[in-house]
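Dear colleague,

Following up on Tuesday's group meeting, I ran the structure prediction for the two-component complex that the binding team flagged. I've pasted the input sequences exactly as they went in, so you can double-check that nothing got truncated or mislabelled along the way. The structure tokens for the whole assembly follow below. Feel free to forward this to whoever is handling the docking comparison.

Inputs:
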Amino acid sequence: MFISENPILRRELFSRLRSPKTFLAISSVAVVSSLLVLLRWPTDASIDLMSQGALQVFRPLAFALATGLMMLIPAFPATALVSERRRGTLALLLNSPTTPFQIYLGKFAGNVILAFIIFSVSLPALAACYAMGGISFVDHLGPLLLVLLGMAIQYTAVGLWISVIVNSADASLRWTYAAVLTLSFLSLGPTIFVGKLSGIQSLLAHWATAISPISALQSITGSQAQASEIGIATGWSEFLVASCVITLVLSMITLIKLDPRLVERARPTGKVIGRKATTTPFYGWFRRVSFLVDPQRAKGNIPWWLNPIMVKEFRTRKFGRLHWLIRLISICGVSSLMLTFVAATGTVSWGVDRIAPTMVLLQVALLLLLGPCLGANLIASEVESGGWQLLRASPVSPIRILTGKLMSTFWTLMLMLLATLPGYVVMGYIQPALSGQVGNVVVSLVIAIFMVTTISACVSGFCRTTAVATATSYAVLLALFAGTLLIWVARGKPFGPLLVERALQLNPAAAALAEMKTPGFEQYRLIPDCWYLCLGISFVCLAILSIRVWRMTRPD
Amino acid sequence: MHEHVVETRNLSKRYGDFVALDNLSIHVDRGQILGFIGPNGAGKTTTIKILVGLSRPTSGSAFIGGVNCSEKASQIKRLVGYMPDRFGSYDNMRVHEYLDFFGAIFGLKRSVRRKRIADVMELTDTTYMQDKFVESLSHGMQQRVGIARTLLHNPEVLILDEPANGLDPKARIDMRQLLLRLASEGKTLIVTSHILPELARICDTVAIVSGGKVRAFGPLDEVMRSLCPLRSYEVQLANPEQLDPAAAILTKRLQASEPITLSRAERVIRFPTVRSEDELAHLLQGLIAEDILVSQFREVASDLEDAFLSVSAGSPGHA
């Protein structure tokens, strides 16, 4: 069977292309790429043979396309198999004469072709860069297109692999975006050790760096000098090799998992140990204390002073259960203390000025990873499961529903922030002059939490399915947080300082980085304007969400 | 004046040009079970939504326990236990936690809630599954938990949308017994179902709706008599060779409006009729007089399906 005759491919591709979301994605890519070229298009009829003008457009355009690909493409494969399994259609496909390989190939090729279609609208912008002079097809355009293709196949393989092993669409989206962020950014972590390591460790660190498209993009856009400053020494060809290896390995694992016997998994029925009625008071008390983090411990009745909607939200999400929350908070606390310890002991020659931005970036990464997922679940999952109808039929007020749901997300994210506070306290102790700045950083992060919660909850209010709400929340928040940093990356070329400052004022993480005098952010004074702006956006989202919830609870 | 527990008066609901409900008037008394029947899109769910305060009528009014459903929706929600056709499960939540959550949003105090959950679990026979995750339960078990949830705040009226849908025969029998038990305890029930023989076994009253209008409403026997006036009789013969002579005798004595049908495999002749018992006795006597060996002569009882079909066949839009 030719690949073009693959029924899965045809269905995947045509159903995606019919979706308004795809139209929106294509339009966004076209508008952003056109605007970037328009900003830097020469006003006089001359060709820049030194390539500076073209590179000034090509560089942010390349990074914008890569960021767009990171935001848009993983969402499709992440829900491809898990949604089919939840609907029961995967079992139908597996029990048909279509082989698992054809199913996988159809899904895989459908997503890669879709990525190609979405990003093909940027070709005129890339051609315009080429027309400006100084950009060659062999050194710039060709490698960029290959890197984008490498990213598309790598993220598709990652998304499909996660989609086959998890049980829900939103969990699949969460883990896929976590994997994409890890592959793209955290894989750069070992680069700082490359200079100091030797032998096999150095080789491993080198290839870990090659997994990230950042190093490949830097070599294509002519930023090798900045890259080598932080130890990156890999090029785009190594990225392509790494992408192909990852894709092949993950595809094989996914194909093994795509077995009818493995798809039909028994649902965990759940068992509880230590129900109070069956134990003596002392034994019950002992178990209650010692099994504080036991997931199978019986839960008590909801006390009157807690909002039942909030308790329900905590109990129904995996990370909301106490044992998971404690693990998550512990990881945050230990990581922040470790980083602070590194600063205090002078390991790897880092000081507070480098540790604080690292902590801020790690916290924001965690916030962006978990926040959209938690927030997007709030309304959409309730509507999808049919629980919203039950809430409407109960006497609970819209205000109580809203506060319970928002608080469940806000407190989870706040707990993670609070866990890192000891690290900031130690930092303030090492450099007392930093105390005021640390305070401002913490306020900025609290505002970031509020913003992430309200925006993702607002998105959730307008979506019928959790998967769509989660993917949209990720796209909106990544555009806000990563998009503004992308504008900052292209500061001066082509974006002017005023535009960059205005863009950064939308990003509380940038305000925190500026407050800690992070290199590149020293000249910006973002506080308090950034706080007012972000709080304003959050309150607008909150108002829209309140009206939406009120309308959704009213009789039709 | 007699107060009905549930009453709708000329209830109408329009969505633009589409008329979902057209002057629907029904009523149910305490301890009664109303079977609410109709084809898909007949207006059953619209009526239910108005009764539970989730929708407002375009005109007319609905009352539960004397309280206007559209004007005092919050009060209505405490009077009614509503089980929609979708269960509404939550991931990672155990049955006990699920019931506790719904008890809490209905404002039951913690001590009251604890006792109430134990009571409803015992009543619905769900105690043994209290520690299981709700999403892991079978459909029948989920329906039981759904009924337990509707009973938590001890409502006067229970409105159950398709409670027997997707249940196996054993679960259906259990469900039937549970509903009868609730009615015997004084609860008023409104039950919709596509499984009409099930409804016929438990309902005191039926309302058949189609195209937004009530086509038949009243006690089950009355509705059956009004919708199925022709009684169906069958004659079973001991000797299959006498089938044709017997058919000839019956055709001669019956009228054109009483056509006979033969089932040779069953050795049975069937015919619809409005004749009285005496006339039918003469008919049987005529067969015996002609030496026809009749092994059975009996009325085939019409069921709710016949009544439903007779209504839906005449309703607009029915193919």
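Residues 107 and 136 of chain A are 34 Å apart (CA to CA).

Cheers,
M.
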